[in-house]
Every structure is written in C-alpha cells, then in structure tokens.
Amino acid sequence: MLLDFQQTYAHVTFGLSIFSNSLLLSLLIFRRDKNLGSYKYLMFAFSFLGLFFSIVDFSNKPMVHIYGGAYLVFSLNSFGLPHFLANWFNALNCSCYGMTISLLAVHFIYRYLAVCRPNQMNWFMWPHTIVWFIFCSEISFEWWITAVLYAGETRVIDELVKDSMKTNYNLTKGEFIYAASLYYRTNEKGEKTISWPDVLFAVNIVKLITICMTIVLFCGIATFRKLRTLRHTSKRTTTLQQQLFKALVTQTVIPVLTMFLPAAVMMISPLFEVTLGSYEGLIMTVITTYPCVDPMVVIFFVRDFRHAIWQTIRCKRCLYSRETYSLRGTAVSFITEPN
Length: 339
Known about the structure:
- The chain is mainly α.
- It has a domain at 1-59 and 91-154 and 196-297: Rhopdopsin 7-helix transmembrane proteins, CATH 1.20.1070.10.
- It has helices at 2-30, 39-60, 83-116, 129-150, 155-169, 196-229, 235-268, 281-287, 290-301, 303-313, and strands at residues 63-67, 70-75, 177-182, 184-186, 192-194.
- The chain has a three-stranded antiparallel beta sheet with strand order 1-2-3, with helices on both faces.
- The longest helix has 34 residues, at 83-116.
- It is globular.
C-alpha cells in the first residue's frame, strides 16, 4: 500500500508541477513588465528547474527506506536502464535537490541586495550573473558525484536491508536500485564501529545545506528588519511592504518544511538507528511537493499575475495578452513613490 501510494502521489505532483511551472513560464514570457528586471530571469530559472526536477522525480519515483543505521533513496528503475546508468540517473534526484536549495539561496541574496543594498544590484547583471550560475552548478554537481561515488550499492547494505525491503515494500534484490549511507558497520571481531566514509558523506551534505540555509536565514532576517524600519506615508508603499512581509515569510517557511526538515529527518534518524515505519514514506512525498508549490506562491503574491489569471477565468482578458502593465505593490520589486 505504501509503495502504491507513493507511485500514485508521484503522478499527482508531476501533473501539478508541470501545470504550475508552465503557467508561471507563460506569464513571464507573454506578460511584459520593466519593473521585474533581472528578477524575471531568477523566476525563469526556478520554473525550468521545477520542470526538470519534476521530470526526473517522475521518471525515478524515488522512495526512502530507513533501517538499522542506514537510509536508502531507492527507485524501481522503471526505464529498465543498465544498472550503473540507473544509479547515475537516481543520483540526479540528489543533484536537483542541491540545485534547488542553492537557487533558493540566490533568490534570497537578490531580495537582500534589492532592499538593503540596491547600489550592489549589478551583481545580478551580466557578466556578474556567472557567479550565481557557478555557485548553483558546483553544489548540484557535488551532490551528484558524491551520491554516485560514495553512496553506491554494497553487499553489506544489500544484506542489511534485504528482509526489511521484502517486508515493507515486497521488493527483492534486483527489483530496485538505490543510493545509501550506513553509519555503523560490523568489523571482523563482530564489533559495531562508525563508518567514517559514510559519516563524512553525510557531513558534506549537511555542510551544503547549512551554507544555503545560513544564506536564507541571514538574508531573510536582514531584509525583514530593513522593511520594518522603512518610513512610508503612501497607500501604495504600505501595500507593497505588507506583501513583501507575507512573501518573505511564506517563501522561507515552505522550503524549510518541505525540503530542509524532511532531509534532516532522513539523515539524522539512522544515526540513532530509529526506524520510522510507514512514516518514512512522507519524507520523499513532502520533498517532491516543493516544485509544484513554489510557482504558485510567486503567482499568488505578484498581484498582476494573479489578476491576469482571474480575468482570464472570467473571460475578460486573454492570459497571454501582451498589454504593458506595471507591478504595483508586488512581492518582487521594491518601488517607492513621492509623498
């Protein structure tokens, strides 16, 4: 039942992600606005990554199993790829996760500079944007290559999880492929010892998450404080400030709940040899929800995007109308006007 639920949920999130990201891309392409500036390209990157993440996730339909000091991110290899290629493809889920959190960090750096240091916004103009491309690509590649080289299948893990995989998922060796870490191993004397390569692999992942999370928190808190100290008298600026507060809080809470927290549970539970039972199915389920939720957050807080969709539903204006419009009081640009 758990396996069937996760496979079905993968279809649902895939459909929602394709719809929401395609909708946002359509709005970005067909709607024209000068106030978005370079933020438009960040939203493009988020949407394209969301689509790619969804395709990879739908192709792999990864699941998590935690047992005996080990965690597995496993897949049924629905494409029937050769074993080594299937493992490389499975590792793309880790790569997409790394790319997503790094791009999220860049997103908050943009917000921080736009509100707190507008004179440094040239960092998001060509050719300085190469810095952010390299930052995201490096983290993504590091996650992929370490998953391939240091989290591959081993006979020890095969034997450890053989019975539990049969009991929980009715799967036997050869019916699935996986990437895994086993924190404790038994030596020739029968003594349980720490597997330092697996611990260091986990530490590397935690390091990358910590770097991105620190950027998110620092930039988020600094931006929040700056917005609180702004003096305003016009209704337009007041509305803008309120929307920025809501957007900032929402876009901080959602990835924490859907990406950072599940990953922490997956990696910390094996350290204490905690078995989550059927609850382990929620880990990947929650993580794969993020790509379809994030574009909806952007659409909701960008007032003119929201209005364009509503007017299209009411048959008052085509969604793809190329009318020029301005973002009045949106969550993506900071505009002030004279008193």
